[in-house]
Structure prediction request, 117 residues.
Amino acid sequence: MEHPTYYSKRASLTFNISEFEVPPMQDLLVIGRKAPIGPEAVKRMAEVLSPEQFSIIRLDHPKVEAVLLKKNLLEMVDQKALTGIILEEISQFVNDSMVLRGKINISISIQREVELS
Prediction:
């Protein structure tokens, strides 16, 4: 007894649309050691698109060669602390050929106590 053969090809598409941003990076770019664009090219691109708003920070990391960060973030949080947190959070999924962009929100919480009279 022969079984009928069913054959089909299907494709599923998913896409997200967001506003084009200039510059095309947000607060952070993580540049892998074998990424198609290196830290110097990223730095030049950032300077052309957004002069004096970003700093390139070279790192001693097996997968990540450098990060590009908005300077105003570095005015709020210590560079070593911020890059340490970034590496800690991305190390599990980044590879050395990636260039990742990210957004960092810093909120400041202040609490004070005063003597009651």
Remarks:
- The beta strands are 28-32, 54-58, 64-70, 99-102.
- Helices lie at 39-49, 71-76, 79-90.
- The chain has a mean pLDDT of 88.
